[in-house]
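Hi support team,

I've been running sequence recovery on a batch of backbones for a student project. Most finish fine, but this one hangs at about 90% for roughly twenty minutes before it completes. I'm not sure whether the input is malformed or the queue is just slow. I've pasted the structure tokens below so you can try to reproduce it. Let me know if you need the job ID as well.

Thanks,
M.K.
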């Protein structure tokens, strides 16, 4: 009898300890007003407007290269190398504005480096806007092995600019009902650690104001992604009459099938037919993609952005308002030593007036 009481007491202690750890680990450290922040690094670094502007969208994958979300043990030296590769890539392209997704603001998984501030300093950028979508004290992912856990995570989306930023808004998009098809008990636990998908809205003063909408849509659930697409479309419709709009980011979706290469294998067309995310998002907005339609019938592979080591699909996009903006050039940043599992997508443009 005494043994049974001892076992029962031990079980109670273990349950209480697990519950306490769960509450602590899944709680964030930031106040609500710290989740969306504008920063001016150097007023003197703000550029004077010129005739052609360059915007880039880049899912940085927290500089983990092809180890992103895999149970692979990395080192601080590895992240120092990928940081240098990312800084070199940015210096080579020299974008005026960069929209980042999956960028860390001092997280255990990337050795507590504030990646945005570091890239801003290395590139001589003047301003930034941060929108946090993952603030957890301890994330027990991507493996059951504690040595592989992310630990403390502070991450999100950001805009880095050589020009003034204003009118910053962090819009939280709908969440999936189930996380990555886990069984119900594990799903409830996983929900507490799942990231918020965001639309980050910020105005960039390029001599004329441009409303930038930086998105990172749901990766695993197509139905949730469709609902998020309708939310983003509502944002575009709210602002498009009074602003030049540029919508960019990681959409986890391909361009409409009507624009895909006619050489696309039938099995791939069939596998993509159910994903209507971009059709839903763009319907009635008048937005146009940075790459002209002709590219998809002649050089579609040149638009691919994922995975970075040997890209086979394009899920990172830039869309713009053709009444206000004229695209001059669009390209994907290739080359060896990719610091993320995504490649960056770039558009150069001029204002029509």
């Amino acid at each position: 009898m005494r043994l049974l009481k001892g076992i029962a007491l031990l079980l109670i202690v273990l349950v209480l300890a697990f519950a306490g750890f769960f509450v602590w680990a899944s709680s964030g450290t930031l106040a609500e007003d710290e989740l969306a922040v504008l920063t001016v690094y150097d007023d003197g670094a703000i550029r004077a407007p010129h005739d052609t502007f360059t915007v880039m969208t880049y899912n940085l994958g927290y500089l983990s290269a092809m180890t992103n979300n895999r149970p692979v043990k990395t080192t601080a030296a590895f992240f120092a190398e990928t940081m240098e590769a990312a800084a070199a890539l940015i210096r080579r392209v020299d974008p005026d504005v960069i929209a980042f997704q999956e960028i860390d603001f001092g997280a255990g998984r990337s050795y507590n480096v504030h990646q945005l501030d570091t890239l801003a300093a290395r590139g001589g950028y003047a301003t930034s806007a941060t929108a946090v979508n993952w603030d957890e004290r301890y994330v027990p992912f991507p493996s059951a092995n504690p040595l592989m856990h992310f630990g403390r995570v502070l991450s999100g989306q950001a805009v880095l600019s050589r020009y003034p930023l204003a009118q910053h808004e962090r819009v939280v998009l709908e969440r999936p009902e189930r996380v990555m098809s886990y069984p119900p008990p594990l799903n409830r636990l996983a929900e507490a650690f799942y990231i918020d998908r965001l639309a980050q809205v910020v105005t960039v003063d390029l001599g004329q104001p441009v409303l930038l909408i930086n998105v990172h849509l749901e990766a695993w659930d197509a139905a949730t992604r469709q609902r998020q697409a309708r939310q983003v479309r509502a944002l575009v419709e709210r602002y498009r009459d009074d602003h030049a709009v540029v919508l960019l980011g990681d959409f986890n979706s391909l361009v409409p099938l009507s624009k895909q290469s006619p050489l696309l294998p039938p099995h791939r067309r069939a596998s993509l037919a159910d994903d209507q995310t971009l059709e839903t998002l763009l319907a009635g907005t008048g937005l146009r993609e940075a790459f002209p339609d002709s590219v998809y019938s002649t050089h579609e592979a040149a638009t691919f952005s994922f995975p970075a080591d040997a890209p086979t699909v394009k899920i990172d996009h830039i869309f713009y308002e053709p009444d206000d903006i004229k695209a001059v050039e669009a390209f994907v940043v290739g080359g060896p030593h990719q610091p993320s599992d995504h490649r960056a997508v770039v558009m150069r443009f001029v204002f029509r007036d």
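--
Follow-up from support: It reproduced on our side and the slowdown came from queue contention, not your input. The first strand starts at residue 36 and ends at 40. No action needed from you.
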